[in-house]
Amino acid sequence: MTIANAHPDLDEDFMPCIACCNPFLKGEFLKLLSYVQILSQVISTVHQSAALPLKIGFLGIEQSGGALYKPQVLSFRGRWLMLSFNGILEISPQDLGKRGFMTIRNIQSFFKRVLLKILRGMKILPSQNHLEYSGPFETWSIAVNSSVGYESKVVLEKVTRGILDVLSGKAKYERDGSTFSALPKSDTAREILCELVDENFVIIDFGGGLGGNYIANREFLDKANVFYYVLEQVNFVKTGQEIALKFKLPINFKAHIEEVDNKKIDILILSSVLQYLDDWQGILDSLLFRHPRYIIIDRTPLSDGPTQIFVQENEGYYETKVSYPARILNRTEMLREFRNYEVVREWKSNFDPENHFGFLLVKVA
Q: Would you state the pLDDT for residue 23?
């Protein structure tokens, strides 16, 4: 559609005279510029005037994924601009007040997310699996003081919403609090778990959130009648136990490995967790003391350089700012900790940046 002259009251200098269709089509750079012109002028005006009455409205609320909405109308200084953004603008319910209006406080961050989506779609910026870090920092404690913290209740709330959406049938799959309408087409760790699991296996999912991995793989885990444990922070354990009870999930949530009754561990899962631990070597030693037969490591950032400590920024991912310390581990240093284990398979993460890896290790002694 053409947005030029969309409304007679709109300022000429505000509206670019360029057709705006789907900006993700190849060769549509002029259309990208038109979006950038709109957004940059709105952001500039917001920056200059804290009282700008910019509102997001709807031409019939359209659900997307059961939780997000696609705005169809943009109000600029009280004048309504009719636009179809083809799903580029997605507002969570937390972005909107009771009357369906965005507050001035989050307008700038909202439009920043829009620009990032456009630029990533045009492959001008890295794709959405790009992670941003600040640092490096000399010590973990310094990084902690420079971050908000993973223990923030906002993280738990987001993961809880995602898990409940899956369990209620609104979504098929949850990862890091985000929900998806289908299981991933490629998930190496899942494929390996399916190959390894056997009747009455004991599985420890360290840092397993609210059991999303079990829920996504119930089809074959239930058949094997496995004993599944999730080791997590106390606040996750409490919420996980409540969800498991309500939905009759055979998941055991524990805060410490010492609470696991089974002495034998068949599979230890370490997915996107080692990098977020202060004493990662000490915790790993306590887990390896149980001599698991197989270890699945996944989504772990590694480098050939020295291990460094950063703060992982999560701009726009949570409702409020949440950041936390994270290590990019030296590859050799990490693998050295798994004494008496052999790496039998290695892969690049299916979901994360290029430096994130996965491994299957098998006990040899």
A: 38
CA distances (Å), origin 235, targets 141, 155, 221: 22, 11, 25
* pLDDT value at 79 more than 60: no
Give the domain ranges of the chain. Answer: 29-121, 132-363
Amino acid at residue number 93:
P
- Taking 80 as the threshold, does the pLDDT of residue 165 lie above it? yes
Q: d(Cα 237, Cα 164) in Å, to the nearest integer? A: 15
Order of strands, sheet of 55-57, starting from the edge strand that comes earlier in the sequence: 55-57, 73-76, 79-82
Residue 228: φ, ψ to 5°: -110, 125
The listed CATH number (3.30.300.30, 3.20.20.105, 3.40.50.11440, 3.40.50.150) that belongs to domain 132-363: 3.40.50.150
Which tops the pLDDT comparison, 136 or 88?
A: 136
pLDDT value, residue 263: 79
Residues 6+ apart with CB under 8 A from 269: 189, 193, 203, 204, 205, 206, 208, 213, 296, 298
Give the global pTM.
0.67
pLDDT bucket at 113, cuts 50 / 70 / 90: low
Q: What is the DSSP code (8-state) at residue 258?
A: G
SS3 readout for 287-354: HHCCCCCEEEEEEEEEECCCCEEEEEECCCCCCCCCEEEEEEEEHHHHHHCCCCEEEEEEEECCCCCC
Query: Rounded to 5 degrees, what are φ and ψ at 34?
Result: -65, -40
The pLDDT score that the predictor gives to residue 69 is 32
